[in-house]
Amino acid sequence: MKHILSLIVLNHAGVLTRVAGLFSRRGYNIESIAVGITEDPNVSRMTIVVDGDENVVEQITKNVHKLIDVLKVSDITHDDCVDRELALIKVTANSSNRSEILQIVDIFRARIVDVGEQSVIVEVTGDEGKVDAIIQLLRPYGIKEVARTGMIAMVRGTKMQKTPSRRVINI
Length: 171
What we know:
Blueprint: E1 2-10, H1 15-25, E2 30-37, E3 43-51, H2 54-65, E4 70-75, E5 81-92, H3 98-107, E6 111-115, E7 119-126, H4 128-138, E8 143-148, E9 152-155
Antiparallel strand pairs: 1-3, 1-4, 2-3, 5-7, 5-8, 5-9, 6-7
């Protein structure tokens, strides 16, 4: 089963490497990882998607939380959350199939962000299923490249993921 882990970490160089290294050393594969600063420029949020059973994820969570720069780890898999992914898809497009591609793009509320003589680049945002679905529909036209961000997620409603107060030592 896929699990969504949300980490609040200090915004320092090397934190991503340490977190990813922990997964690697333990033999766990990260399906996707996305990192960005939060409303506080000293803190970043990591969204990690990992495949494993409850025991594996619990062990991962405990090990990740031991890292010095990790402030909070939450498994938000079963929480009511909003998740999104961004994908750029370069599709072979010529005068004979361009209108069909545009129809698919409109149906998915995606958009064309670049037009070339022999290709277009489509930008789509949505959950993993939506991104997978548009890729499947565009595949017969000839997909040249795909770039996906991986999932980002946030728990819905008023329940905020507060950053715990930990003593921060700036070096």
